Amino acid sequence: MKRNLKLKSLLSSLLLLVLVVGCTETESDFEETQTVTSVTISTDQSALETGGTATFTVLSNLGTNLTSASVFYINDVAIANSNYTFLTAGKYNVKAVYQNLTTNVIQITVQDQVVIPTQFVNRVLVEEYSGTWCGNCPRILYGTQLLKEQTDKEVSVQIHLFNNDPFITAQGNALATAQNVSGVPTGRINRTINWSGPQYQNVNQVLNEIKPGAPVGIAINSTLDGGNINLNVLLGYTNTALQTKLVVYIVEDNLFYSQANYSSNLYNGLSSIPDFEYDGVLRSIVTPISGEAITVSGSQVTKNYTIALPSNVANANNAKIVAFLVDANSNAVLNVRQARIGQNQVLESL
């Protein structure tokens, strides 16, 4: 009997050992086997200039870095490494292959190197506050006429104020308030200098503000699509550390109205000048009055706007865009340019 008990005890121990060993040996069978089923390519540069180098990385669906084990292709041509220097402008499709798996395709855009000019052509801005009812305003109106006869590097904008003038705008009133203008005629040169009156006798004060060059340049390109203006403003910088703000106006030429006149020596001494022509009349301000802050990330910056043609524009063919950059600290105008809607410009470098 004791012998049978010992035998049973021995058999029980052996069975327990088998169960323990069996569990230990088959534990891994319950672990899920992980395999690479897809691969993805990425790059540190999706847009660069000729001569620039992009570096590519391949990751598996498990997050494993497979870059060193992958073959890279640019426009379906294999390259030797996981980085590539682009010498020609254009668009390039890049992919990679790991074993029998192919990545997604990414596109690299390469443009020719931008040559940074030393200076840009400079123009001066005159903001002219006047009114059709104002008998003293022909003094500043004639002053801007003389400027146009003497230089093509002056851009004038008329802001009409007070007394139910037909060309008043709410934004023009707000602009006058921001510039502390309380009477007419008033002239602001590059937003920070008062144009001394009588303005037609002080034309040189404006001409003297036209500099040999400017640290910023402006090119305006626009189209009219139905009732919308598609506007592209290209900004060029010789100094990328400049802090600037962009201001954009829509103005209109060839507007006519009777102009009061107190000056016997101007416009034949007429007390009321019939069908006086007004040019550069403010119709709308696209940006904030003080300007839109520009983030400069390179030598050129592009700002795009889609805006409705202002309802107060009488003739779209006479509408123009005026764009200027101001120093963010002093609010002085650094440069200004104007263009008719539909006109295409390039940066004017010296």
Model description:
With 350 residues, the protein is mainly beta. It folds into 2 domains: 39-111, Immunoglobulin-like (Sandwich), CATH 2.60.40; 124-340, Sandwich (Immunoglobulin-like), CATH 2.60.40.10. Helices cover 15% and strands 40% of the residues. It is built from 4 helices and 23 strands. The protein has helices spanning 2-26, 138-150, 170-178, 203-207, and strands at 39-43, 47-49, 53-60, 71-74, 77-79, 83-85, 90-98, 101-102, 106-111, 124-130, 154-160, 186-189, 193-194, 216-225, 228-237, 244-252, 255-260, 272-278, 281-285, 292-294, 300-308, 319-327, 333-340. The strands form 6 sheets. Strands 2, 4, 5, 7, 8 and 9 form a 6-stranded mixed β-sheet that branches. Strands 16, 19, 20, 22 and 23 form a 5-stranded antiparallel β-sheet that branches. The chain has a 4-stranded mixed β-sheet with strand order 11-10-12-13. The longest helix is centred in the N-terminal third of the chain and has 25 residues, at 2-26.
Outline of the structure:
By secondary structure, the chain is mostly beta strands. Helix content is 15%, strand content 40%.
Give the helix tally: 4
Given helix and strand content, the structural type is mainly beta
Distance between the termini: 117 Å
Q: Which descriptor suits the 3D outline?
A: elongated
CATH architecture of the largest domain: Sandwich
List keywords for this structure.
350 residues, mainly beta, Immunoglobulin-like, 6-stranded mixed sheet, 15% helix, 40% strand, elongated
Write the layout of secondary structure elements.
Layout: H1 2-26, E1 39-43, E2 47-49, E3 53-60, E4 71-74, E5 77-79, E6 83-85, E7 90-98, E8 101-102, E9 106-111, E10 124-130, H2 138-150, E11 154-160, H3 170-178, E12 186-189, E13 193-194, H4 203-207, E14 216-225, E15 228-237, E16 244-252, E17 255-260, E18 272-278, E19 281-285, E20 292-294, E21 300-308, E22 319-327, E23 333-340
Parallel strand pairs: 2-9, 10-11
Antiparallel strand pairs: 1-3, 3-6, 4-5, 4-7, 7-8, 7-9, 10-12, 12-13, 14-15, 15-21, 16-19, 16-20, 16-22, 17-18, 22-23
